[in-house]
Each structure stands twice: as C-alpha cells, then as structure tokens.
Design the sequence.
C-alpha cells in the first residue's frame, strides 16, 4: 500500500474500500460481482477485508481476501485482530495471507467476540494460549518479528473521544496518544481512522499527530475513515456504536428528510462530499487518501467518489499503448 501511495504523482488523491465477508455462498456470489463492477468503475488504490473479533470469520475473511487479491487482482489489506485469538490462528492467517499474495495487514486489537458469531462459523476459540497479545501493538511487534518487512502494516486510530458510561473503555484521543505513538513506532506504515463526521475534531486530531514531538507521525499516511450514509437508522446505530458525533447542522439536514430513504442517501452523499472537500484542502505531507466503510454497498460510495473527483483515470492497457506508439509511424 505505501509503495503504491508513494508512486502517486504530487497532489494526487486516492481512496480505499472496506468489505466484510458475507455469511452465505449466495452473499459471496453477489458481493463478488459487485466487487468486480466497483473495482472496474471506481479503481480503488486498495481494498480491505474485515476480520471478525476473535477470528470468528477467519475462513470467510480469507476467502473474501482471496477473491479480492487473486481473482480480481486488487491490492488487498487483511484486517487481523489479536485478542481472544490463539497464536496458531494468527500464524495461520499470516501464512495464508502470504500464500494468497497479500502484502498488507491492518493490525488490530479487536473487541470481545459475540458467541453467536463463533457458533455460526463453528469455530470455538481454543483455550486461550495467547497471553502475549493484549493490545494491537503486540500484534504489530509480532508480525515484524516473525515476518520482517514482508507486510506493510496499518494501525487504527480514533479522532474522537467519548465518555459513555455504558462502554467498558473511556476513549480520549489525548489519553490514547502515547499508545498510538508506541504502536506507530513499533512498525506501522500507515494509520487508518475510525469513521467520523465532525471535521473539526478530525482537524484537531490530525494536527496533534503531525505536530507531535516524537516525529513518528510526520510523514506517515493518515487515512480518514468515511461512512457513506445508507439509511437514517443505520447511520444512528453506527455512529452510536463508534461514538462518532454528528454535528448539529448535519443531523438537522438528515432529520429533515428521515422519512424518505432516497433523500437521506442523497443528503448523505452531499454531507460526506463536504467532509471530503474540507479534508482535501488540509496540508498533507503526501497524497491524500480516504477510506470508505462501504458496508458492502455500492451506490452511495460511487456517487461520493464521482462528486469529489476521486476516481482515477483508467490506465491504458498494453494494446492501447502500442496503438498510440505506432500512430506516428503510420502517419
Ligand atoms: P489498541 O491500539 O490496542 O488500543 C485499544 C485501547 O487500549 C485504546 O484506548 C488505547 O489507548 C489503549 N491502550 C493501548 N495500549 C495500551 C497499554 N499498553 N496500556 C493501556 N492502555 C493501552 N475490529 C474487529 O474486530 N475487526 C475488524 O476488522 C476491525 N476493523 C477496524 C478497522 C478500523 C479502521 C478501525 C478504526 C477499527 C477496527 N476494528 C475492528 C475495531 C477495533 O478492533 C476496536 O476498536 C478495538 O477496541 C481497538 O482496537 P485497536 O487496534 O485500536 O487497539
């Protein structure tokens, strides 16, 4: 991923798309054709495939990663969590990623898994032998120790805080900061953020990182997470789960149309496009990227990418190149 980012021309923007593994073979078939359409029409720099906490989707995540990397030829980043996972599951996932030609891992801690996910996958976790992995940094270190620089490693970051009493962890970007410094210094190549709508919070967060005295964030790609609005209900649920604040004016615009799903999507496209245009204007040490939590859906993200002119020109294939090369000779 970082090789591809570094190869982009000055001032270029790029984007990535995130997908989760469907539960059924019908779901896989549908997603595969959607991925094929999206990759041809939108040309993401890379795609990412989520990993169920505790390895609950291990088989299906690897299956989807294989479709993306091998079948569709997309640069693929596999998410990998490390808590509630046996070490052998982590080793297997990394080995299988290698076999599939995957060179990118998003190294995460993960949350506690829900037992029904295990039951669906038929994979109960082994007695956890894995006391070595408490935080994401442990996974970053482990991957570097076992695999050197073979993998390009991404880590997660959170632009907004929350003090939700019902949540086991109080979250605060300033309290997280020393851990993010450590995690980055341990070998991360890029940072990908939690979704957000509050651009002021994001501006402050990015500035805090770029100016940090450690210097570890000076030039590392920081890729902001974007959630296209698919429906009013999904938006409210996901923002609650991820503790993303919806600024008053955005909420008012969406509230005003909440009875009409099509209008909600349309306003959502405008809202996200404004967020992106705002971030595009921020100074950045390299090309500016955006990561889209697609929820496996196609339309809203396509509209946003079009509106924000994020879709790169298609590369000429070899035949076309040759056709252009011979033109002067014919003339
Ligand atoms: P960490 O970096 O370990 O941080 C977790 C918390 O612990 C932070 O509050 C941090 O400040 C604190 N902390 C870190 N180190 C220490 C320390 N040494 N001592 C004390 N406190 C410490 N989850 C999934 O299950 N599957 C996915 O595919 C997935 N994809 C994601 C993609 C993105 C882009 C993001 C932002 C999140 C994703 N998550 C996913 C969610 C993630 O697993 C959870 O948010 C998890 O709770 C934290 O993971 P982390 O990697 O940020 O953890």
Sequence:
């Amino acid at each position: 991923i970082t090789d591809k980012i570094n190869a982009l021309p000055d001032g270029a923007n790029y984007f990535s798309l995130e997908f989760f593994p469907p539960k059924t073979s019908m779901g896989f078939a549908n997603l595969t054709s959607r991925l094929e359409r999206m990759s041809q029409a939108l040309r993401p720099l890379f795609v990412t495939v989520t990993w169920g906490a505790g390895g609950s989707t291990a088989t299906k995540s690897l299956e989807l990663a294989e479709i993306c990397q091998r079948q569709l030829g997309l640069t693929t980043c596999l998410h990998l969590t490390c808590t509630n996972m046996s070490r052998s599951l982590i080793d297997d996932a990394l080995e299988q990623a290698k076999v599939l030609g995957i060179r990118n891992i998003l190294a995460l801690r993960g949350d506690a898994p829900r037992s029904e996910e295990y039951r669906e996958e038929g994979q109960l976790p082994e007695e956890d032998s894995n006391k070595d992995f408490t935080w994401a940094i442990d996974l970053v270190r482990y991957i570097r120790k076992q695999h050197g620089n073979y993998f390009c490693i991404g880590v997660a970051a959170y632009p907004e805080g929350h003090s939700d009493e019902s949540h086991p962890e109080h979250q605060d970007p300033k309290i997280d900061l020393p851990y993010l410094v450590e995690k980055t210094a341990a070998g991360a190549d890029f940072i990908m953020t939690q979704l957000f709508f509050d651009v002021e919070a994001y501006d402050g967060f990015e500035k805090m990182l770029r100016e940090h005295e450690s210097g570890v964030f000076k030039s590392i790609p920081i890729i902001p997470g974007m959630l296209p609005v698919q429906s009013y209900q999904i938006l409210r649920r996901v923002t609650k789960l991820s503790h993303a604040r919806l600024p008053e004016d955005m909420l008012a615009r969406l509230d005003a149309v909440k009875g009409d799903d099509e209008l909600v999507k349309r306003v959502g496209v405008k809202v996200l496009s404004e967020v992106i245009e705002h971030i595009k204007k921020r100074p950045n040490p390299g090309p500016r990227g955006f990561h889209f939590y697609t929820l496996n859906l196609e339309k809203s993200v396509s509209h946003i990418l079009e509106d924000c002119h994020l879709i790169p020109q298609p590369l000429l294939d070899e035949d076309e190149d040759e056709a252009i090369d011979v033109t002067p000779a014919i003339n």
In short: The two ends are 41 Å apart (CA to CA). The chain has a mean pLDDT of 90. Residues 261-280 form the longest helix (20 residues). The beta strands are 13-19, 46-49, 76-81, 104-108, 152-157, 190-195, 222-226, 288-293.
